Every structure is written in structure tokens, then in C-alpha cells.
Amino acid sequence: MGTPDEISMELQKISWFRELEPKHLKKIAAISHLRKVRADEVLFREGDSEDNLYIVVEGRIALNIFVPHRGKVRIYTAEPLDVFGWSSVTPSVRQRTAGATAVIDSLVIGINAEKLRQACDEDHDLGYVVMRRLANIVASRLLVTRLQLLDMFANPESQNGK
pTM for the complete prediction? Predict the structure, then answer.
């Protein structure tokens, strides 16, 4: 769904894609697709095989992990222009580290992770920009998760609905 030109226009709304050379943007658009997801629709589950890196165009996507003795815990809510599913692009992780479910009707861009890794390997200039940006996303998500964990352990009763 969506032509490469439409996808390219959506990608250019995201700040780190604006820095890409036109040839790199064209490569990424060619391996991407638009996907509409309904509220409560599962995009992927924790432990699933990786397939796509996603970007929220419209809507909100909840990222959840299973925590023993607590069940499913939302660790992040991806808003428009947020990237999620980044673990699918890393060289060694081959399964999802969280699950993703639409909070409301949403539109996302899916970028084929295998083809993106291949494009980064073939063009190191593209690979450097993509991996540098993904490293920033990982670092910010780790900070958010750390703060959530600190809050969870400081206030355990609030996490159990008490």
C-alpha cells in the first residue's frame, strides 16, 4: 500500500530521514510499505521473528513486554514520527524484544528489516546514518525504560492495580 513517492513524502517528515541523500531516501522508500492498523490490532508479539522496522505516521502504538508476576506491561507508547521495532535491524537480534499493539486506529510505515540491513551493508554511508540514528533511539528508550523500572520498584502496589 502506498507508492514509493508517497512513502518518501512521509519519510521526509521525520527529521533523521531529511538528512539522507535523495538516493538513500529512494532506496528506503522502495523497501517500505504503508500499513493501516485498527485499534487493538497486534502488529507483532514479543518473541516473534523480526520482519520490519516501523514508523508511526498517525495514531499510537503500545509497546509491551511480559514481566513475571506482573503480566503484560506497557513500556512505551509510540506517537507520530516515532520509530519502533528497531531490534529487527540490529545484526544479531532475530526476535522481537517487545510486542506492539495499536492503541487507536493508526497508520505506520513498515521498512523491510532484512533489506534495510542489506542496503546498509552495501552502502556504508547509508549504514552509518541509519545505525547512528537507531543508536540514539535505543539510548532514549533505555532511559525511558530505566525511569519506568525505578518507578515500578519504588511503587510496587501501584503496578498491581491497588
Answer: 0.84
